[in-house]
Design brief:
Elements (H helix, E strand, L loop, with lengths): L5 E4 L3 H12 L4 E4 L11 E5 L2 E4 L9 H6 L16 E4 L5 E5 L6 E3 L3 H25 L11 H16 L2 H10 L4 H8 L3 H12 L12 H8 L15 H14 L3 E3 L4 E9 L2 E9 L4 E3 L2 E4 L3 H10 L5 H9 L6 E8 L14 E4 L3 H12 L8 E5 L14 E8 L11 H18 L3 H4 E7 L1 H8 L35 E3 L13 H13 L2
Parallel strand pairs: 1-2, 1-12, 2-8, 5-14, 12-18
Antiparallel strand pairs: 3-4, 5-6, 6-7, 9-10, 10-11, 13-16, 13-17, 14-15, 15-16
The structure holds flavin-adenine dinucleotide.
Amino acid sequence: MTDPDVIIIGAGHNAMVCAGYLAQKGRSVLIIEQSNHCGGLASTREFFPGFKASVAHTIQNFSSKVIDDLSLTKHGLDLSQYPLQTIGLSRDGECIRLDSSKDQPRVSGLDGKDEEAYAGYMARMQTFADMLKPFWLKTIPRIGSANLQDMTTFLALAVKLRLLGKDEMGEFMRIATLPIRDLMDENFESDLLKAVLSWDGLLGSKMAPRSPNATVLSVLYKMAEKDAGAPKIPVSGIDGLVTALYKSARSSGVEFKLGQPVSRVLMDAGDHGVKAVGVVLADGDVIHARKIVSGVDPKQTFIDLVGVENLEIGFTNRINRLRCDGYVAKLHLALDSLPVFAGLDSPLGRLILVSNMDSIEFAYDDAKYGEFSDRPVMELILPTLCNPDMAPEGKHILSGHVMYIPHQIKGGWTEEAHDRLYQNLIELLEHYAPGIREQIIFGELLTPKDLEHQYNLTGGHWHHAEMAIDQMFMMRPTYEAAQYSTPISGLFLCGAGCHPGGGLSGAPGHNAAIEILRTEQ
Ligand SMILES: Cc1cc2nc3c(=O)[nH]c(=O)nc-3n(C[C@H](O)[C@H](O)[C@H](O)COP(=O)(O)OP(=O)(O)OC[C@H]3O[C@@H](n4cnc5c(N)ncnc54)[C@H](O)[C@@H]3O)c2cc1C
């Protein structure tokens, strides 16, 4: 095989998006993945004989532009299933249902006042989400850049803001970094509604309703695409997305090497400083390329794959200080039959088990001090209701995201701690779905520590690096490596650690490809 133009490390969904764009422009691309499958956290695996699940279990804001550009529909992606309803369930049996479609956002299970307020709130948030939408698919320029394209991006943002009108522009500036609790208190009365609506801003981050930071921006990011961020499952599960990305990349000529961990980025010390010129595989094989793109998290990319000996000390310090500790654990249950949730005819939907914003805040408080809560908060879906073939006939899977489970806990993740958390979760589920304990054939609990190990992902972090204002936009992952290019010539980033961050969006992969092609002009 001749040396490819570009090597991409890791076959996460962002890497496959990036590869697809580069290959469409005639670049020869080789993706090298450590595991035996593509998709990273979106890959589907058998966690118990006959029962399959993926860590990421729904799609909320996958880019429609990427779907079109990479012909993902032609390659089998089918997102035509109606989005899942979000169902909020409180401990004392209250239940609300949210349909967040753009045309007719509706909430049921509340009094008329909050129902009306919900429609108004969603309309205003959608205006802000639409205003920001173009910028998730753009490189955010460095401050002070005199480059024409960069200045145009800033100018476009200013114009978009101004077009909101003076009052709405002021309102956007006011709420953008507001603690989401304040935004909820200003708009609604129902404690359950407030908790459920704040959930999407918090999920995956080390923030709670009282944290002033990026939670409102995260909600707007999720609302950017169709159906205002309502969770969706492709017709053939999350695997439908991964398979379509793989087929699209292959049809453009992208080559894949699976089961081959990259152990180093190969450097060449030239007259103008070090340059990335290839990769060294774990088995010692060396492959050269003109450009190396990493879909692996930034900390691992720079510290482990590049090596501190090739980095400026100041940059090394910044990368070492990146906050990458994950706060979400994953629960997979193989169930003998469909569980019955009190008050629900069917558990079809995304179920959020929270009572109010305090229940979220208290769970976070424990996590801040290296504990996990006795009263965890979680969302769950039963993917087998949409895709029965993920389990043997008549059997079901429960897939749960458990918030505020720290990567590091006091005393470490011993077997006892692991088991205590698992039992807490089963107790919680038993409260909502009496009898579920007896329906469990097998349970798998992946703490952020387990995710780190299984997916080779620093901290097991949802976004590869915390989504906080100081690690977003032109500072993601750090100011010096924020435009997909890095201080190392020939080395680029394309994963969730880049703007605009994690989740199954394809946006970092798209933006990285555009930027890599731009550097060649
Ligand atoms: C518990 C949890 C639940 C989540 N649920 C959702 C959800 O429901 N919906 C949603 O939209 N998002 C969800 N996310 C977030 C989402 O899954 C990630 O943000 C997204 O998958 C990141 O994609 P990526 O392509 O950037 O990286 P990844 O998916 O992390 O892929 C990186 C790839 O690099 C490979 N790799 C690592 N090191 C090496 C090496 N040395 N050599 C070769 N290959 C290497 C890995 O094996 C992996 O395949 C969840 C995240 C977590 C942690």
